[in-house]
Task: structure prediction
Amino acid sequence: MSAIKMENLRGTVRHAVLSILVIALVPMAVGCKGYGRSTGGAPSISSVSPTSGPVGTSVTIHGANFGAAQGYNTVKFNGTAAIPTSWGATNIVAPVPTGATTGDVVVTVGGVASNGMTFTVTTASTAPSITSLNPTSGVVSTSVTITGTNFGSTQGTSTVKFNGTAATPTSWSATSIVAPVPTGAATGNVVVTVGGAASNGVTFTVTTGTVSLPIKATANNRYLVDQNNVPWLMVLDAGHHITCALAQSNWNAYFADGHAKGYTEINCFSTYA
Result:
């Protein structure tokens, strides 16, 4: 075979081999182009909800071009990787990861990072919180149930105050406290303090138990009512047993104390003229 024919044959073989390589590489390049990436462009975040919360908060990331499935794509909170609980082309749900700090949430798809959207990482609150009082008004010594969270399983050094006046609770749990309205309390906020942290205040109205005189019996003579037919209970302090030793200058203080305790009548006997 001549040298010319051999050279032509070699050229034909090289051309055929190159053609096969080109044909083989084209689909591989096409396949690599879409691997792990959205086919609609770079990922983009439009909003996060909520925009703040402690570690563990479930955050929904809204946007576009996230891809139908997570694959090797990532979500990071200021550089700390999260573990998404759901992933879609326009929505991702992921809890705030342990160690995350305030900063940008970024979604990376196929090696391409989205814009950043700020998320504020807060500290989980352990302060006590009052949700309700029952009742919301009453006289001194009225038993009040305080419902809420983070009260602690036992009282220890924790306190309950009615507008600044300390009460003596009769029961205490992490979510419920029962305490009578203390002597000297006035209308104002009830506050629970645990470990030095004070709760929100909820208003309690301290009433005086006033009544519209005169007092009279009902038509069936079974109980007493005032002139507005409001039932009236006589709570009696048999004061004559002790006032013989009480100086006249202290009478007003004695009567005021009885009134604060809810007495509606004080039976006194005096030897003073």
Summary: The longest helix spans residues 3-34. DSSP finds two helices and 25 strands in the chain. Confidence is low (pLDDT under 50) at residues 21-36. The longest strand covers residues 58-64.
